[in-house]
Design brief:
Elements: E1 2-13, E2 22-36, E3 45-47, H1 48-51, E4 69-78, E5 82-83, E6 86-87, E7 99-107, H2 112-124, E8 128-131, H3 138-145
Parallel strand pairs: 1-7
Antiparallel strand pairs: 1-2, 2-8, 3-4, 4-7, 5-6
């Protein structure tokens, strides 16, 4: 078993794997988000039902089309440099444990009726929300993080 960190990047248009998604709004991320059998490779899929931050009937997360899965777009590995069986003295990242972040793309929206509940669900579940002040979703982010 491995524990995965997850970053869900929200876009105006989500492209097919291998193509570039358009109009990034921001991202939602969480360390230790999933326990999995292995680290998925780029192109493999993760079930939206595992990523939701609410009961399945209330989940608002959407990928490209109607698929119940989001394809892995990127895997970021964070190994820990080891010297004499311990993390290197100069390595000051905490916690000093190796990790992998799985990057997914999902649809974002500027519609407050959809966007605020989406962001609020993930914020309430402990996900970090990251939106730039120039993002079209930033006003929704402000409402969602300050209910």
């Amino acid at each position: 078993m491995v524990t995965l960190d997850v970053r869900i990047e929200l876009y105006e248009q989500v492209a097919e794997p291998g193509a570039r998604s358009v109009g990034m709004y921001g991202a939602m991320s969480r360390e230790d988000a999933l326990e999995a059998l292995s680290v998925p490779a780029v192109g493999e899929s993760i079930a939206i039902s595992s990523l939701r931050a609410a009961p399945m009937a209330e989940t608002l997360l959407q990928g490209q089309g109607t698929s119940p899965f989001l394809p892995v777009r990127q895997v970021e590995h964070y190994p820990v440099p080891v010297r004499d069986g311990k993390p290197a003295a100069w390595y000051n990242i905490h916690p000093a444990a190796p990790s992998a972040t799985v990057v997914l793309h999902a649809l974002g929206t500027t519609d407050p009726a959809f966007g605020v509940p989406l962001l609020a669900q993930f914020a309430a579940d402990g996900w970090d929300l990251g939106f730039w002040s120039h993002s079209e979703m930033y006003p929704l982010y402000e409402v969602a993080r300050n209910p």
